[in-house]
UniProtKB/TrEMBL annotation, chain A:
<dbReference type="GO" id="GO:0030276">
    <property type="term" value="F:clathrin binding"/>
</dbReference>
<keyword id="KW-0653">Protein transport</keyword>
<dbReference type="InterPro" id="IPR016024">
    <property type="entry name" value="ARM-type_fold"/>
</dbReference>
<dbReference type="GO" id="GO:0098541">
    <property type="term" value="C:cytoplasmic side of trans-Golgi network transport vesicle membrane"/>
</dbReference>
<protein>
    <recommendedName>
        <fullName>AP complex subunit beta</fullName>
    </recommendedName>
</protein>
<dbReference type="Pfam" id="PF01602">
    <property type="entry name" value="Adaptin_N"/>
</dbReference>
<feature type="domain" description="Beta-adaptin appendage C-terminal subdomain">
    <location>
        <begin position="620"/>
        <end position="732"/>
    </location>
</feature>
<keyword id="KW-0472">Membrane</keyword>
<dbReference type="GO" id="GO:0030131">
    <property type="term" value="C:clathrin adaptor complex"/>
</dbReference>
<dbReference type="InterPro" id="IPR011989">
    <property type="entry name" value="ARM-like"/>
</dbReference>
<dbReference type="GO" id="GO:0006886">
    <property type="term" value="P:intracellular protein transport"/>
</dbReference>
<comment type="function">
    <text>Component of the adaptor protein complex 4 (AP-4). Adaptor protein complexes are vesicle coat components involved both in vesicle formation and cargo selection. They control the vesicular transport of proteins in different trafficking pathways. AP-4 forms a non clathrin-associated coat on vesicles departing the trans-Golgi network (TGN) and may be involved in the targeting of proteins from the trans-Golgi network (TGN) to the endosomal-lysosomal system.</text>
</comment>
<dbReference type="GO" id="GO:0016192">
    <property type="term" value="P:vesicle-mediated transport"/>
</dbReference>
<keyword id="KW-0333">Golgi apparatus</keyword>
<dbReference type="InterPro" id="IPR002553">
    <property type="entry name" value="Clathrin/coatomer_adapt-like_N"/>
</dbReference>
<dbReference type="GO" id="GO:0005829">
    <property type="term" value="C:cytosol"/>
</dbReference>
<dbReference type="InterPro" id="IPR015151">
    <property type="entry name" value="B-adaptin_app_sub_C"/>
</dbReference>
């Protein structure tokens, strides 16, 4: 039980660490320290022996030193006063003749995450940057980033940045890459490290000297370089050519991405690159490193979105082996579904049919959905296979087949007849909610073509009391009402029973409401029911089900080799959206009405998010980013619609303001740096009617107030007033945080 | 960039945990939480780091379903995991990183650890945890990969660890020159009394065959591993029977093309160790390099054409009524009679409702393993151009489970002393202009090993 009795353990270790006999014996001493680290790993609070551990750092045993430093880096935030004691030893080590000791001490010192350490590490870092051993320089360069991270709000030190830029010419490759990483973090607010022509060419020339991590990193940084001319562009592409064949898949993908981005105006170059990475990608897809294989498959799918025929001749590469892990099989099935064409459709379907009876229900279902996907183009063959699968009378297969049928009749109405013939009998093998819903929907919509449809639905009505899923009951209500319109005689009686049950006995609010709604609708008259239930299909989900058109390469090139293809675009959007909300969440106090609503709103209610309590009728549209040029032009062409002065005292962080504005969908176009006087910011926002609000914030050097000027491209006072009240609230909140 | 690295055992206990960045759980911000309360779960070290650690255990290691992806997102944090035997390695990050790179890094981490203490097992990790912390400190800084070459690392992180005090000044400067040198993979001034090198061509042959004996897919992924014990800074040149090279040379001497043309192989794609000069390979397709000292992987390649399939499996499954199955499997070895295949294992899956199995085999030993639902047939050695057979009668329990038996494929394992791709090493020349040894003085050893990868025949 490692988690319990930690106090005793701490006491015992403390005693051991103080014992002079143990201290004298190097191995025993180190063993005790090892035990401390072991407990720390297991999650025990070991901060109690901090004092003793600090003492143990004064040793010649380098392994012991490392262990103690690891310990200190973990607990320093908890014991800042005691950690200061250790700084002395660390500083001394920073001037040790052995470069390894210097590097270790510097690295550990920079990793102490506690306030106040900055003043101690500044000088050692500066010394480290000029150290003659590149090992120390590597550590020192990253140390700069760590130092900056400790005090995120501090001013960027121009001299340090210049020093780092000059170290980009260092002869050690890892120092160069670390410089890029460090600059990127320090200059994050200003858009990261600047890659101009000399730097870009310098990096390109050093590429072959770097290890795979460095190469991948530099390829990523080069993405932001814009070649001046076509000639230069092709020179760069030629230089990078060999990296498309690198032994590291990460470098290959990085190089591919860079090619795609640089050649964004030359579609034929892009296609050419994709043809050339086909080999390496296929190799990765069949490599023994399963996780890499998974990542490669995700990217293959991405490429297939734009070039559907790209891997068609290699379709056999994507056949699943029995012993492959689940996640690879699922990806391969998706790939197969996407690369199908006239020549291979027979073989692919044959293969997929084999997967449908796999032991893993999950995999079998994925294969069936894939056949459903292919059915959109090769309907007859697929429907035949799916119908045969129904004959197996297996629950997990039948339910998915019926769901596939439901989607299919919607998209390919020509197969309705075949589907209707296959349906009778499958109700016996469906138990889950999704499957039942699909079946009931089919029976309702196409009931006139299925002879026994009313009887199947009758069974459901009979058992409605024991039905556990409300969604099934809702579906049943709608389906039965629909069927009642086409076959009234057979349905009238049970529709009455179902409505009675739903209204009188049902506990679920939604079901009862739907029942009542239909009841009242029926009271109005049968024509009205027809008008509502049989209105033209305008379901918004239809858009989702339809095949997405071929997407141009440029639409995903910037997502290539990131997590987006791995998670899928939609999933990634929700992840990164939350991250944004989280970042600005803690900056705003919970007392202000709109700030609290930011992170709390669930992801799916995107529409409602804009209806903030204090914005009234105003609905600001998110992500309406204007270009600076357009803003300037519009700004100059309009007159000031509203001017106002708000009280404002002292310093603040522009970032906080930007975040807060982002929450209410006001975009920042440009902003002065913190502390400059006069300080200015230009903001823009647009509401749902297309009305633009352009705003200037101005802080004069001596005044303690902020001047706000708003311009509007359509003169409408009520929206203007609500916009200004939103703006006031945001600025008021920032003011509160400061004070 | 990697925010943290954790190693778990199969129970989900944390064996190693190293946090590089605050963003995966801001410890500093959490300090208030745990100074105020006692020794309980929530306020143990770095509350939110713990949360991240625990979340992975609950969501992935202890998950009921099969793992759906090696990249898992829990609370907006991405967990990249790799499993080695029953050890889980997880890299954690909040950034939108480059997934292939993170996995490569985890593989590298595994390689480095394996180079230090062999197999990655719970016991080895527990015994070497200090060493692992040292390594983690060195190969990642602030979440960025640093020097990860095993050769370089081994010079200053040793198993015993105390080495650094006993070093002479000279040794110390040597280490720094290697750790920080221009050519990351080799240091100057290496000397051997006997210059020797070993080349291993290691291939794994993968096959998926239909019941009718049609090859659905087959490929060989191979590696050329070199172990070099050479003095100085030797320049090496490696040649093999690559089709493109042979054809290029063949233009001069026409009769040679006809002779060697058959023996050349078409390589689909290949990648090389960092030390190989890629520009030369692109222009002349020659492979020249200065090798690292000791063992390294020179190249990795893949072929799909003209593969020599060492074994053919011919399955025959007959269902006799509802309660009996007759299975007959013939394996044929398809290589020179003078060669011997080893460690042959054929795995014939049986239905879940098997009650008893009778096996007769001509060669080797066969056993029904109920726990694995398979008949495992092992043959120690088998010469080329031979044939062997197994027949089994499987008794089934009558069940009311309507599920049809899916008939998983028959898989095979083996090891053969040749390269199934047909790759041959033609030469490996060594030049060291500064020292007085020539190509002839170097002792060279070449070995070919072909192993089965996924080698399946459907039945």
């Amino acid at each position: 039980m490692p988690y319990l009795g930690s106090e005793d353990v701490v006491k015992e270790l403390k005693k051991a660490l103080c014992n002079p006999h143990i201290q004298a014996d190097r191995l025993r001493y180190r063993n005790v320290i090892q035990r401390v680290i072991r407990y720390m790993t297991q999650g025990l609070d070991m901060s109690g022996v901090f004092m003793e551990m600090v003492k143990a750092s004064a040793t010649v045993d380098i392994v012991q030193k490392k262990l103690v430093y690891l310990y200190m880096c973990t607990y320093a935030p908890l014991k800042p006063d005691l950690a200061l004691l250790a700084i002395n030893t660390l500083c001394k080590d920073c001037s040790d003749p052995n470069p390894m000791v210097r590097g270790l001490a510097l690295r550990s010192m920079c990793s102490l995450r506690m306030p106040g350490v900055q003043e101690y590490i500044q000088q050692p870092i500066l010394n480290g940057l000029r150290d003659k051993a590149s090992y120390v320089r590597r550590v020192a360069v990253l140390g700069c980033a760590k130092m900056h991270n400790l005090h995120g709000d501090s001013e960027v030190d121009g001299a340090l940045v210049n020093e780092l830029y000059s170290l980009l010419r260092d002869q050690d490759p890892i120092v160069v890459v670390n410089c890029l990483r460090s600059l990127e973090e320090i200059l994050k607010l200003e858009g990261g490290v600047v890659i101009n022509k000399p730097i870009a060419h310098h990096l390109l020339n050093r590429m072959s000297k770097l290890d795979q991590w460095g190469q991948a990193e530099v390829l990523n940084f080069l993405l932001r370089y814009q070649p001046r001319s076509e000639e230069e562009l092709f020179d760069i592409l030629n230089l990078l050519d060999s990296f498309l064949k690198s032994s590291s898949p990460g470098v290959v993908m990085g190089a591919t991405k860079l090619f795609l981005i640089l050649a964004k105006k030359f579609p034929h170059v892009q296609t050419d690159v994709l043809v050339r990475v086909k080999g390496p990608l296929l190799a990765a897809c069949s490599s023994e490193s399963r996780e890499l294989c998974f990542v490669a498959l995700c990217h293959v799918r991405q490429i297939l979105h734009s070039l559907p025929g790209h891997f068609s001749s290699h379709y056999k590469k994507f056949f699943c082996s029995y012993s492959e892990p689940h996640y690879i099989k699922l990806q391969k099935v998706e790939v197969l579904c996407e690369l199908v064409n006239d020549e291979n459709v027979q073989q692919v379907l044959e293969e997929l049919r084999g997967y449908c009876t796999d032991v893993s229900a999950d995999f079998a279902q994925a294969a069936i959905f894939a056949i459903g996907g292919i059915a959109r183009t090769y309907t007859d063959q697929c429907v035949q296979i799916l119908t045969e699968l129904l004959g197996l009378r297996q629950e997990h297969i039948t339910t998915v087949v019926v769901q596939t049928f439901r989607d299919l009749v919607w998209l390919c109405p020509q197969c309705t007849e075949a589907v209707c013939q296959a349906l009778p009998g499958c109700e016996e093998n469906i138990q889950d909610s999704e499957g039942k819903q699909a079946l009931i929907w089919l029976l309702g919509v196409h009931g006139e073509r299925i002879p026994n449809a009313p009887y199947v639905l009758e069974d459901f009505v009979e058992n409605v009391k024991s039905e556990t899923f409300p969604a099934v009951k809702m579906e049943l209500l709608t389906a039965l009402l629909r069927l009642f319109l086409s076959r009234p005689a057979e349905c009238q009686d049970m529709l009455g029973r179902l409505l009675y049950y739903c209204i009188e006995e049902e506990k679920d609010m939604a079901v009862r409401d739907r029942g009542l709604f239909y009841y009242r609708l029926l009271l109005v008259g049968i024509d009205e029911v027809k008008r509502i239930l049989c209105s033209p299909k305008s379901d918004p989900t239809l858009g989702l089900l339809e095949d997405p058109a071929e997407r141009p390469v440029n639409s995903w090139a910037s997502d290539f080799n990131t997590l987006v293809p791995v998670y899928g675009k939609a999933h990634w959007a929700t992840i990164s959206k939350c991250q944004g909300a989280e970042r600005c969440g803690p900056e705003l106090p919970k007392t202000s009405s709109f700030a609290a609503s930011g992170p709390l709103i669930p992801e799916d209610n995107k529409e409602r998010e804009q209806e903030l309590p204090d914005s009234g009728a105003l609905m600001l549209v998110p992500n309406r980013q204007l270009t600076a040029d357009y803003f300037e032009k519009t700004w100059l062409s309009l007159k000031v619609a509203h001017q106002q002065v708000l009280p404002w005292r002292g310093e603040f962080h522009p970032d906080t303001l930007q975040m807060a504005l982002q929450v209410v969908n006001i975009q920042t176009i440009a902003m002065s740096r913190a502390g400059t006087r006069p300080w200015k910011a230009y903001l823009s926002a647009q509401d749902d009617t297309g009305c633009l609000f352009l705003t200037e914030l101005l802080l004069e050097p001596e005044n303690s107030e902020m001047q706000i000027s708003v311009k509007q491209n359509e003169a409408r006072t009520e929206t203007l007033n609500s916009f200004i009240s939103v703006l006031e609230t945001v600025i008021g909140t920032i003011e509160e945080i400061k004070s | 960039m990697i925010g943290g690295l954790f190693i778990y055992n199969h129970k989900g206990e944390v064996l190693i945990s190293r946090v590089y960045r605050d963003d995966i759980g801001s410890q500093a911000a959490d300090s208030a939480v745990f100074s105020s309360s006692g020794p309980f779960l929530g306020e143990r070290l770095g509350g939110s780091v713990r949360n991240a650690v625990d979340a992975f255990r609950v969501n992935v290691i202890h998950a009921r379903q099969q793992v759906r992806s090696p990249v898992t997102n829990i609370a907006r944090t991405s967990f990249f995991h790799v499993k080695r035997s029953n050890i889980w390695l997880a890299a954690v990050t909040k950034q939108n990183v480059n997934a292939a790179m993170v996995f490569e890094f985890l593989y590298k981490m595994c390689d480095v650890m394996a180079a230090y203490f062999g197999k990655i097992s719970e016991e080895n990790i527990k015994n070497n945890f200090v060493l692992i912390y040292e390594l983690l400190d060195e190969i990642l800084d602030f979440g960025y990969p640093q020097n990860s070459e095993t050769g370089a690392l081994k010079t200053f992180i040793t198993q015993q660890g105390i080495k650094s005090q006993h070093q002479t000044k000279e040794e110390q400067s040597q280490i720094t020159s290697q750790v920080t040198g221009q050519i990351g993979w080799r240091r100057e001034g290496i000397k051997y009394r006997r210059n020797e090198l070993f080349l291993d061509v290691l291939e794994s042959v993968n096959l998926l065959m239909s019941p009718q004996g049609q090859v659905l897919s087959a490929h060989v992924s191979g590696r050329v591993v070199m172990k070099s014990y050479l003095s100085g800074m030797p320049e090496c040149k490696f040649g093999m029977n690559d089709k493109i090279v042979i054809e290029k040379q063949g233009k001069g001497t026409a009769d040679e093309t006809s002779k060697s043309g058959k023996q050349s192989i078409a390589i689909d794609d290949c990648t090389f160790h960092q030390c190989v000069r890629l520009s030369k390979f692109d222009s002349e397709r020659s492979i020249s390099f200065i090798p690292p000292d000791g063992e390294f992987e020179l190249m990795r390649y893949r072929t799909t054409k003209d593969i020599i399939l060492p074994f053919r499996v011919i399955p025959l499954v007959r269902e006799v009524g509802r309660t009996k199955l007759e299975v007959k499997v013939v394996i044929k070895s398809n290589f020179k009679p003078s060669l011997l295949a080893q460690k042959i294992e054929v795995r014939i899956p049986t239905p879940l409702n098997t009650s008893g199995v009778q096996v007769i085999c001509m060669k080797g030993k066969a056993k029904y393993k109920a726990s694995e639902n398979a008949i495992v047939w092992k043959i120690k050695r088998m010469a080329g151009m031979k044939e062997s057979q197994i027949s089994a009668e499987i008794e089934l329990l009558p069940t009311n489970d309507k599920k049809k038996w899916a008939r998983p494929p028959i898989s095979m394992n083996f090891e053969v002393p040749f390269a199934p791709s047909g790759l041959k090493v033609r030469y490996l020349k060594v030049f060291e202009p500064k020292l007085n040894y020539s190509d002839h003085d170097v002792i060279k050893w070449v070995r070919y090993i072909g192993r089965s990868g996924i080698y399946e025949t459907r039945c």
